[in-house]
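Ticket #251: bound-state structure for NAP.
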Amino acid sequence: MNKDLTNKVAIVTGASKGIGVGIAKQLSTAGAKVIVNYASSKADAERVVGEITANGGTAMAIQADVSKATDVKRLFEETNNAFGNIDILVNNAGVFEVASYEASTEDAFHRMFNINVLGTLIASQEAVKHFEGKGGSIINISSVVSKNPEPFVSLYSASKAAVSMLTKASSQELGPKNIRVNSILPGTIHTEGLINLGIEKDSDMLKGLVARVALGRLAKPTDVGDLVVFLSSDEATMITGQEIDISGGMR
Ligand code: NAP
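RESOLUTION: The complex was predicted; output attached.
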């Protein structure tokens, strides 16, 4: 048994930035051919592809908005044309917004549920078509707030709770097709997404978040990537329907 993913083909949604970059790089290091999906950040996605290929890996950037079914269908078709049969889907693309419960808007609801939840659903449905007859692995990036909600992220927490339940529910239906579905629950990871919320590297807010982690540090995107590699590998063939916390013991 090992974590070798040679000849496997993986799609990582939202891999132009943040956690998706760490996932794409670790999958490539394990031998997989990787699709670096992005919505609008073409240059970032191409830089990630460049870094993977410079390291001896195989990768390609493909634009697709995961909340649009036609884009997702094209993402899988282009992947299949370039690299052949798809084995691994990582539903990482996601957006988060901070607002009080009373100030949470319909627009924010639709944005977060369309990308985080509907995007996970339609990409997974497309993956199932491509996995038909041979099985595969779907890994959804949820969040610790799906279980332990924090103030000012009600809609985001609700969207990630939906992702976690899609994971568990779909694993029951897809098990007989040898398709495993698991979710990973990061705590805080300092990505572009957090910087966009104004959480800078040496800020008091970030130090406060680190202080809540039993291991005394924030996880890195590659830590999530290592867990994705394990869950995609032959070492995890009996693991499905699980939610795995990778927060370092966040309180
Ligand atoms: P990030 O730095 O903001 O990066 C988001 C990525 O998602 C980008 O590559 C972005 O591509 C892509 N994306 C956004 N909307 C998309 C769409 N409609 N279609 C396709 N791609 C889209 O975010 P992150 O912090 O790495 O978070 C990644 C995932 O981890 C999310 O699901 C998030 O909820 C989850 N998470 C993050 C944390 C954390 O502390 N960072 C904690 C728990 C869970 P473009 O740049 O092209 O738009």
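RESOLUTION NOTES: The chain has one domain: 9-190+221-238.
TICKET STATUS: resolved
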